[in-house]
Amino acid sequence: MTVEDQKSYIFQAKIDEQVPVVLKGEGTKITVEKDGETRELLDGVTGAAVGALGWGDPDVLEMINEAAKVTSYSYPAFIGNKYSEALAKFYIDNSPKGAFAAAQWCGSGSESNENALKIIRQYHMEKGNMKKIKFISRKTSYHGFTTGAMSISDNAKAAAFSDILLPKEQFLKMDVCYPYRHQKKTETTEAYVQRLLANLEDIITGEDPETVAAVIVETLPGSSLGTSPPPPGYLNGIRKLCNKYDIVMMLDEVMCGTGRVSPNGGLNCWENFLTAEEGPDIQTVGKTLGSGYVTIAGILISPKIRNVFLAGSGRIAGAHTYSGHGFNCLVALKIQEKIKALGLTKNIFEMGNHMGAKLQESLAESPIVGDVRGLGGFWSIEFVKNKDTKESFPMPLNVTRLVQDKCFDNGLTVMGNQGCNGGVGDHICIAPHFIVSEDEIETIVSVVTKSVGEIVDELKETGEL
What we know:
Blueprint: E1 21-26, E2 29-34, E3 37-42, H1 46-49, H2 58-70, H3 82-93, E4 102-106, H4 109-127, E5 134-138, H5 147-151, H6 156-159, E6 171-174, H7 179-182, H8 189-207, E7 212-218, H9 234-244, E8 248-252, E9 282-285, E10 297-301, H10 303-311, H11 326-341, H12 344-362, E11 369-375, E12 378-383, H13 399-409, E13 415-421, E14 424-430, H14 438-461
Parallel strand pairs: 5-6, 5-7, 7-8, 8-9
Antiparallel strand pairs: 1-2, 2-3, 4-10, 9-10, 11-12, 12-14, 13-14
C-alpha cells in the first residue's frame, strides 16, 4: 500500500480506517461525517465526559482570543504566570474550606496521575519514610495510559502491556467496590463495606504498613467499571485506614470531578460522600476543567502534603514543558468562572439524576439491561445475557459496541466499554454537557431505550439471546 492509498493518516484506533469525523458543533449538538454522509447528533457523552459549556460557545471564543493576546508560553520552573496561580486559587476557594492548599497543572489525566505518584513518593521522602514505595489501587480501574498510570490501573488495556509495567509487588490491587456483582444477596451494605475495608487492611498489614505509600481510588469510576457509586462508609473507611497507617489517600476525579458530579454546585465528586475533614490528601482532575476547548488537567494538594514540603526541602522535583501553561490556565479559569456564574454544576447534577431515574424506569424490563447506575452527570448501563445470573455476553459479540453504534445511527453519542466484570462484561457511559436541557435529557432517554430495544431484537434474530 502506498501513502496515497491510505484511508487514514492518524496512527490511532483502527490504523487504516477513517472513523467518523466531527465537522462542527453548536451547544449540545455535533455535525459528523461518516461514510460520506453528514448527520447531526446529540452529544450524549461529550467525547469522554469532557464537555461542559458545549460546542461553539461565543464567550469561550472571546476568552480564547483575549488569552492569546496576553499570554503564550514560559517555562514555569523559571518564569511562572499569574493565570496558573489564579486557577489554583479558584479551585481551592470553590472546594470545602481547608481541603486544598495548592495545585499543579498539566496536560492530561494520565499525566496528572503520573505526577501524583511522584509527589506522593517525594512527600514520604521529605518525612524520612524511605520504605514507603508501594501503591494500592483497585481491581477493574482506569487511571490513564502512561506507564505509571497503567501500573495503578487494572483493565484489559493495562494487561496488554503487563510485561513493561511497574512491578506488581509494588503496585498492589485491592478488591473492586462493585455492589451489583459482588455484594452478596444476604449481605447488608454495611457488611459489604466492612468486607472491602478488611480486604484493604489485610493488604496493608500483610505488606507492612511502613512500606505502603498510598491508596488510590476513582471516586466514581468511569470507563473501566461504569459509574458504580461508593456505598455509605466506604470512602471514609478508607480515609480512616490511611490515617491509621500514615498512608496518603488519593482520589482520581479526572472523569467525575470538576463539577460533573457535585451535590452542592461545587467542584468535587467526593463531597457526596465525605466531609471536608475527610477529604483526600491528593486529588487529580481534568476533563471538564477546560470543557474540551483546552487540554488541561491537574493535581490538587492538601495542606497536609504542602506543609511537609514546606518544612522539608521546600521544592517539588521535576516539571513538564507545558506544566502550568498560561494560555490553557487562563482559558480554563474563565470557563470555570462562567460555569459557576450560570450555576451549571447544579444543572448537570439535577438533570443527570433525572436522566438516571428515567433510564432506570424505561429500561427496567429490558432483558439485557442488568444495571443502570451513576450519580449526577455521569451514568452507565451494564448489559447482561441473563438478568437472573448476571452472565455477561461473550466478549467477541461486543454488545456494547452494538449499542453504541445503534445510538449513533439513531442520533446520539454514547461511550461503549468492555471488561467491567473481571475482564468481560459490557457497559455504556453517558455524560452530557453541563448545559443540557430537560428536553435533551428526554431525547437521550428515548434514543437509548429505542436503541437497546433494537439490539435486543437483533440478538434474538441471531440466536444470541
